[in-house]
Amino acid sequence: MVTLRNKLSPQEIQQFAILLREYRLGTPVQEYCTELLRLYGDRRKFLLLGMRPFIPDQDIGYFETFLESIGIREGGILTDSFGRIKRSMSNTSASAVRSYDSWSLRSESESFNRIITDITHDIEALARDEEEEEEEEEDNYL
């Protein structure tokens, strides 16, 4: 939250909240990733790493591939000496690391939804706070 508030403008925080809500309501992960990258821009694309814990298991494979395709991997941006992206983990090992039984998947899904709801509310509150501060600053100049 603090990172987003420091790196995004109030309008961008609102846009982030909208994207997050749309993703939670069923927007495909491909569209969500593309729109987040467009919002963050190339200069702030490292912020995508912070989304990893909030991506459900069924979408994590695409998310990891997307990060690698734009030059990001866990621990930061990494390319080889020719500017190519180095792969950090095979699809097989990634799926093995993320294997869960049906009970933990359901439990994790419920937990994910609860966390996303909390984050969405926090972001919306931050955006409102920023707007109120800007209005107060404008009033002080008058």
Automatic annotation (TrEMBL):
Domain of life: Eukaryota
GO biological process entries: heart morphogenesis
Record InterPro entries: CCM2_C, Malcavernin
Stretches assigned to the Cerebral cavernous malformations 2 harmonin-homology domain: 1-84
Pfam family, one: CCM2_C
CDD domains: HHD_CCM2
Assigned protein family: Belongs to the CCM2 family.
PANTHER family the record matches: CEREBRAL CAVERNOUS MALFORMATIONS 2 PROTEIN-LIKE (PTHR21642:SF2), CEREBRAL CAVERNOUS MALFORMATIONS PROTEIN 2 HOMOLOG (PTHR21642)
UniProt name for this protein: Cerebral cavernous malformations 2 harmonin-homology domain-containing protein
Native organism: Serinus canaria (Island canary)
